[in-house]
Amino acid sequence: MAGESDQKLESRLTRTKQRWAREGRFLTGKTSRPEEQRLPPGQHLTKDWPVLDLGVLPQISRERWRLDVYGAVEHPIFWDFLEFTAQPQAKSVSDIHCVTTWSRYDNQWEGLATRDLLDACQPRIEARHVVLHSHDGYTTNLTLEDFAAEDALLEHGWSGMPLEAEHGGPVRLVVPHLYFWKSAKWLRSIEFLAEDASGYWEVRGYHNRGDPWEEQRYSGD
Ligand SMILES: Nc1nc2c(c(=O)[nH]1)N[C@H]1C(S)=C(S)[C@@H](COP(=O)(O)O)O[C@H]1N2
Ligand SMILES: [Mo]
Question: Which residue's CA is the nearest one to ligand 1's atom 22?
């Protein structure tokens, strides 16, 4: 997976964002808690919804889309879109916080709660980490605990409509309590692991966890 295919994903944006990580760009040195303030430190509010990715737009129809769940699980999953949407459906409203400093409030999501996915696949006792794999070659890593957050969803609907391709449709992850790079678009598979394995931005200077309230933008913050 590394090497050649990674090189194709080295866009100008990738190089700029790697430089920001080296320079500690946008860091305010402040922290705040969601109870005190809705906007995390160093963020500004936007009304539109920017598109941010590596510049590859995978065109996956709902008919062709499949989800693989594998690794340290009792029940590996291989669902098509109909099987996926036959699972319990959840709705949630949450805010987006992107590490490039924009935030967007009150996004209405619909999909499968990650907790319901965990019920279906039953992570084994040694499973502690999760890696998301996407159709554009992107990966990102989370602890099992962060993945299992109450408001985390495998999302296929936004504002009552199917999730648009540019925002990761047919299905993306949404983990509202972490910076948005953890929310993988064009989800293809979910891997459960005993040991952590860094993803695309995590090996390029970005924080392993990415809590916006602690301003965990870059590794070493
Ligand atoms: N597959 C994939 N998922 C991805 C990315 C990507 O490049 N590829 N970019 C991440 C980043 S850095 C951000 S800020 C959000 C942007 O999502 P949006 O384009 O829907 O706003 O997607 C995240 N998920
Ligand atoms: Mo981002």
Answer: 181
Q: What's the 98 CA to ligand 1 centre distance in angstroms?
A: 9
- pTM of the predicted structure, to 2 decimals: 0.93
**How far apart are the C-alpha atoms of 197 and 71, rounded to whole Å?**
13
Q: How many CA atoms lie within 13 A of 130 on its CB side?
A: 26
Structural domain boundaries in the chain: 2-214
Q: What CA–CA distance (Å, rounded) separates 119 from 13?
A: 38
pLDDT of residue 1: 42
pLDDT in tens, 148-189: 999 999 999 999 999 999 999 999 999 999 999 999 999 999
CATH entry 3.10.50.40 includes domain 2-214:
no
Tokens of 211: 């809590």
Beta-bridge partners for 45: 103
Q: To 5 degrees, how large is the angle CA 165–CA 170–CA 174?
A: 95
- Which tens digits make up the pLDDT trace of 195-218? 999 999 999 999 999 999 999 999
Ligand 1 centroid to Cα of residue 166, in Å, is 9
